[in-house]
Amino acid sequence: MPASARNLMLTLVLLGLSAAAGASLAQDAACGAPDAPCTVAGGTYHVALPEAAAPLPAVIWLHGYGRSGAAMIQKPEYVAPFTRRGYAVIMPSGQPFAPDSALDWGVTDGYDWARDDIAFIAAVRDDALARFGLDPARILIAGFSRGGSMVWDLACRAPELGRGFAAVAGAFWEPMPARCEAPAHLFHTHGFGDRLVPFEGREVRFQDFDFTQGNVMKGIDVWRRTNGCMVSARNSFGEDGSMQKDWKACGAGSIRLRLNRGGHGVPAGWRAAVLDWFEALP
Question: What's the pTM value of the predicted model, to 2 decimals?
Answer without folding.
Answer: 0.89
